[in-house]
């Protein structure tokens, strides 16, 4: 039995990972090439092309509005989440300078971190193929669905200090 606040945090984390996987899957479809090189390292040239494709106003920075448009364009129909919260979490992951925009270097580094995390999570499916992004997306969807179902079943513990496990 989980405490309700722990379950809510786990569900929020699962949603965040599913949003990441959805963005990677969308990036895979929109990219002008493979996101990974043959040796499994992130392809920086393709990631840069993707950055310029997302940068609608050509100012070499991604604003919150551009990220919001990206998330709306992906259409996460199976997932109910606050899109502004997703933008905030993406900004937290990518904006290392703290200027409330994501420049090209921050975008490339953030995407490399996300791609490497995805490779670690689904190594068995052949991490150097583009199929691993789809496998990662399916895995995060399953994790989210599993937590969403178990979230409905969680009953609060009245006095967690007195809980005894036998």
TrEMBL record:
**Which is a Pfam family this sequence falls into?**
EF-hand_7
The alphabetized UniProt keywords are: Calcium
Asked whether the UniProt record includes Transferase among its keywords, one would answer no
The segment(s) forming the EF-hand domain are: 42-77, 82-117
Record GO terms (molecular function): calcium ion binding
UniProt lineage: Eukaryota, Viridiplantae, Streptophyta, Embryophyta, Tracheophyta
Write down what this protein is called: EF-hand domain-containing protein
Keyword Calcium in the entry? The reply is: yes
Instruction: List residues traversing the bilayer.
Output: none
Query: From what superkingdom does this record's organism come?
Result: Eukaryota
Q: Which InterPro entries match?
A: EF-hand-dom_pair (IPR011992), EF_Hand_1_Ca_BS (IPR018247), EF_hand_dom (IPR002048)
Species in which this protein is naturally found: Aegilops tauschii subsp. strangulata
